[in-house]
Design brief:
This protein is of the alpha+beta class and about 140 residues long. It is about 40% helix and about 15% strand. The chain contains eight helices and three strands. Keywords: Kinase, Transferase.
Length: about 140
């Protein structure tokens, strides 16, 4: 099974959207394997966004991510990276369809590829994730 990293950023936490976002992934049949609420320090945020360090918006992005608590999650399931991106919606909220998280709430979250998901999970969950299989798994995945 594939895994992805999903982060609910400070605005989503402050707006009380954590439960709604988790609900959408659970209803799709994905399994929550790791969950933590954390306030990120600057050095960690810079590591997380290292691939964007040359971009003009990098400093603002780091400041934003350290401005309040975030909820970091690892989700598992068949094609969870690509399907998770569909649940989340297009990067630009104006391009996100209604019914997606960004389309409904304009939240910016989630891994964009399997390899970036692996890196993000290793960074955010160095202690590992919960190893368990839902009893619903045989009903969801043939």
């Amino acid at each position: 099974m594939e895994q992805t990293f999903i982060m609910i950023k400070p605005d989503g936490v402050q707006r009380g959207l954590v439960g709604e976002i988790i609900r959408r992934f659970e209803k799709k049949g994905f399994t929550l394997k790791g969950l933590k609420s954390i306030t990120v320090d600057q050095a960690f945020a810079e590591r997380h966004y290292a691939d964007l360090s040359a971009k003009p918006f990098f400093n603002g992005l780091v400041e934003y991510i350290i401005s309040g608590p975030v909820v970091a999650m690892v989700w598992e399931g068949k094609n969870v990276v690509i399907t998770g991106r569909k649940i989340i919606g297009a990067t630009n909220p104006a391009d996100s369809a209604p019914g997606t998280i960004r389309g409904d709430f304009a939240i910016d979250i989630g891994s964009d590829a399997v390899e970036s998901a692996r890196k993000e999970i290793a960074l955010w969950f160095p202690e590992g994730i919960a190893e368990w299989r839902s009893s619903l798994s045989p009903w969801i995945y043939e």
